Amino acid sequence: MSRRRIAILGATGSIGQSALSVVDTHADRLEVVGLAAGENVERFASQIERYRPRVVAMSTSRAADNLRRTGAWSPDIVMNDVGREGLVAVATHPDVDIVLCASSGTDGLEATLAAIEHGKTIALANKEVLVMAGGIVTEAARRQGVAILPVDSEHNAIHQCLHGHNRAEMKRLVLTASGGPFRGRSASELERVTAADALRHPTWQMGRKITIDSATLMNKGLEVIEAHWLFDASADEIDVVVHPQSVVHSMVEFVDGSLIAQLGVTDMRLPIQYAFSYPDRWSAPVPPLDLTQPRRLDFDVPDTTVFPCLALAYRALRGDGSQAVVLNAANEVAVARFLDGSLSFRGIADVIERTLDAQKPAAVRTLAQVRALDAWAREHALEVARGIQLKV
Ligand code: MG
Hints:
The protein is of the alpha/beta class. Helices cover 45% and strands 14% of the residues. Strands 3-2-1-4-5-6 form a six-stranded parallel beta sheet, with helices on both faces. The chain has a four-stranded mixed beta sheet with strand order 8-7-9-10, covered by helices on one side. The chain is globular. Magnesium ion is lined by residues 152-154, 223.
């Protein structure tokens, strides 16, 4: 059996490292052909040494120069481009079968689309790609007959639940949310929380930005928009339930009222492996979920007055496609300001709401239009954030 040839965008991040660990487990089935990373030269050099990819890229020319000076790099490895062009070069390399899109923020947009145009299977971990350009990306995938396999654990769960069913049988998607570190707190209790408080997530180990998104529930909001594009479900057909144990990764309700859920341990290697192995299933070096131990599974409705970001995401989804672009951009700006201590926790939602209020209807039929609207939203959000700076 020939091995599936993988490219990983965002190789040194938490998803990228988990993906390489999946490759280690299934070295007879998977081969690393391309790797792209941000600026972590040291970690990237050791990955290159170990996996000997054919094409690599880094986000800046400075990082690329530093990489060339390490013993890991050799002239037979292609490295011509940096930044977004570098991601595109890795994603479209002719030897690549599957592209894992796990680069941070909005950088992976062009590369994901380019990979689809080149007929690559997409394993999608980067939710911004669908939030910003869901219409463009899913239309291209349909046209090219390319599969988009979700790595985000909730969407991966839904993909598993829907396997063997058609769209007409699906009634409702139920995304589970851990509730984040501030579950059960009141709005007034959240007034003084800091970035350090928010970075202590109870169940998942993730990057800083997504951990804050998880504390505000914006992560779930972005996932609702992502689910809309992946599974052709409207805002009214997608529910969120708070499930603090994170054992049920999400569910699908079918037209006959049956609810099918996917349960498992919280380990990102599982959804990554599923995306790499689909439509097959492979064994995994992860301890199974032990249901013989006493445990409870709680389900609760999310409180959108305490966590208004979730409601803002639904608002954006119910609008035209452009509002999700603004939501995402304003959120990124607001989270960065919260992380550097210049915006309060509550201020994150305020910045997003005021930026959405200020937006004029815009076409988002091309990536250039998406990028232009994204730039406007970032600038506007920054202005709003400066206006409501934390008073110290
Ligand atoms: Mg998720």
